[in-house]
Amino acid sequence: MLESFYAQFSSKDQVLVTIDPDPDAIASALAVRRLLWRKVQSTTVGMIRPIRRLNNVTMVRLLKLPLTLLTKKMDLSTFDKFVLVDAQPVHNELFQKLSYSAIIDHHPTTHPSDAPFMDVRPDYGSTSTILISYLRAAKIKPSATLATALLYGIKTDTRNFERHTLVEDIEAFRTLYPLANHSALRKIEISDLSLEDLKFFQKAVERRHVSRDRIYAHLDEVPLADILVEVAEFFLKIHDISWSIISGIYDEALIVVIRNDGYRKDAGKVVREAFGSIGCAGGHASMARAEIPLENLSLVMGKVNPSSVEKFVRKKLSPYKK
Ligand SMILES: [Mn+2]
Questions:
Q1: Tell me: the pLDDT tens digits for 139-150?
Q2: Which residue, among 9, 32, 29, has the nearest Cα to 80 in the 3D structure?
Q3: Whether residues 123 and 49 fall in one domain
Q4: Are residues 147 and 6 in the same domain?
Q5: Measured in angstroms, how far is the CA atom of residue 131 from the centroid of ligand 1?
Q6: What is the pLDDT, as a whole number, of residue 210?
Q7: CATH code for position 163
Q8: Per 3-state DSSP, what percentage of the chain is helix, strand, and coil (rounded to 5)?
Q9: C-alpha distances in angstroms, 54 versus 60, 62, 100?
Q10: How far, in Å, is the centroid of ligand 1 from the Cα of 195?
Q11: CA of 3 to the centre of ligand 1 (A)
């Protein structure tokens, strides 16, 4: 595999590795860059969009990762060779325009591409895992920076090994673990808040209502529904709270986010019974969510205002019912 990958490149090549920048793609691109070090003239890692997720922003900042944002104005004809990792050409318009020398990916492919070098392993939990086998074959020991990036790539794509994981993913994890910078990794993993988010935590703490092992807070208008998830997960840290129920108004709808300890409980079922008839509601045993358009809400509640919504959510999800 490694030899036929290397056979695609010559020492004069200026290589561009294109990515849709999630942690697995970023780490895989950096591994390719490391593999091609001193084998080609230069390797640039180009992102097709800016990074928004705060964990990933932290990853790039803390590890000082050399990434370039590709803009429409950029002249890509200055590059001789293109490599695609953690995606298929069909996934993006720009990807479709480029003629790739190599594609390394773990997404199942419906439109197989005709790149001279293809390594697609749909059963793998992450592309980072595939790249580890290349580094191993090339006898390259990843630097702390690369090891940390790859470890985070594997952890996010397998959701800490909760989904599609192969023994190869666990082996890759074991290889990287002693090499990674664990304080940096921890900071990356916990960095999902902005300073502005704190005011919603403050509001949630002030507005909290506790009933037996359930905690509720209604946050009125929120700029993004994600903040409801952050607050719900935060409140679940309270040791004797089993249900965290956080609501807010976003995009003309009431959003209710539920987290519980997942022990003999079913948040998905509870939220479907409570809100399924007036909105879209669903989830798993330990996490669930409902979205109820405000117009539906006014049909069942009459007057819609912050305190009536707050009481409505609490009544619908009360532990004292039935
Ligand atoms: Mn991936």
A1: 999 999 999 999
A2: 9
A3: yes
A4: yes
A5: 11
A6: 97
A7: 3.90.1640.10
A8: 45, 20, 35
A9: 10, 12, 30
A10: 29
A11: 23
